[in-house]
Amino acid sequence: MAYFIESETYIEQTFRRRSVTREALNRLEFEDCIFEQCDFSESIFTHCKFIDCTFKDCNLSLINMQSTRWFGVQFFECKLVGVDWTTADWPPFHLDSELSFERCILNDGSFFGLTLQGLRLVECKCHDMDFREGDFSHSTLIDNDFSHSVFMRTNLQSCDFTGSSNFNIHLLENTLDNAKFSRFEALTLLYSLNIELVD
Predict the structure, then answer these.
(1) Element (H, E) at 71
(2) Strands 140-142 and 120-122
(3) CA distances (Å), 35 to each of 51, 59, 71, 97, 120, in order?
(4) Per-residue pLDDT tens for 14-45?
(5) pTM for the whole thing?
(6) Radius of gyration of the chain (CA)
(7) Could you tell me if 156 and 173 are in contact, meaning their C-beta atoms sit under 8 angstroms apart?
(8) Quick one: pLDDT at residue 5?
(9) Please, are residues 176 and 169 in contact by the beta-carbon 8 Å criterion?
(10) 37 vs 133: CA distance, rounded Å
(11) Beta-carbon count within 10 A of 166 CB
């Protein structure tokens, strides 16, 4: 069933329990829209725009977002496994895309080389994610599980990692000026220096 019309613009609408899996969605524009319990898994978004939208309890795993723009979008309790965010449209004049993820599953995703200053990740599972060579300065990254995620030549200046765990961040290969960590978890940063810690 076709829920959305190609090249259509949707403003201030709410979409509930829509199942749009493995579909091709072209040149759609959503502004101030709310998506609740929708399933977009494995769909292809091409040249779409999501402006100031909110996703709640949605499945967007394995979506392809070719040249799709995301600005001011919030995700709550969503599943976004295997998403390659590098294929989206990120205008160079918007250093802060105002993306926010809360209690989401973002495993196996990639933010490689992106400039997403002010990114907000709160209580998310971020396993096996690629943050290499990105600029995430001034981001809020609290209470997340970063198991097996990769940081290299990443700008993490003034980021707040309070309550986050299982990160492997090399002190000499990343920018961490004024970053904030919980006291116990901060000790794991020293392992990258190949030093021995004693009581």
Answers:
(1) strand 69-71
(2) parallel
(3) 13, 10, 15, 19, 19
(4) 999 999 999 999 999 999 999 999 999 999 99
(5) 0.92
(6) 18
(7) no
(8) 85
(9) yes
(10) 33
(11) 14
What domains are there in the chain, each with its CATH number?
Answer: 10-93 (2.160.20.80), 106-198 (2.160.20.80)
* Helices vs. strands in the chain: H and E counts, helices first: 1, 14
Amino acid in the structure at residue 179: A
Q: Kindly report the length of the chain.
A: 199
pLDDT at 150 over 80: yes
Smallest CA-to-CA distance from 29 within 89, 85, 96 is with: 89
**pLDDT tens digits, 56-88:** 999 999 999 999 999 999 999 999 999 999 999
Encoding tokens for residue 7? Answer: 């090249």
What pLDDT does residue 1 have?
A: 46
Q: Please spell the DSSP secondary structure of 92-142, one letter per residue.
A: TT-S----EEES-B-TT-B-TT-B-TT-EEES-B-TT-B-TT-B-TT-EEE
CA separation for the pair 26, 47 (Å, rounded)? 6
Burial class (CB in 10 A: 0-12, 13-18, 19+), 148: middle
Q: What is the pLDDT of residue 199?
A: 63
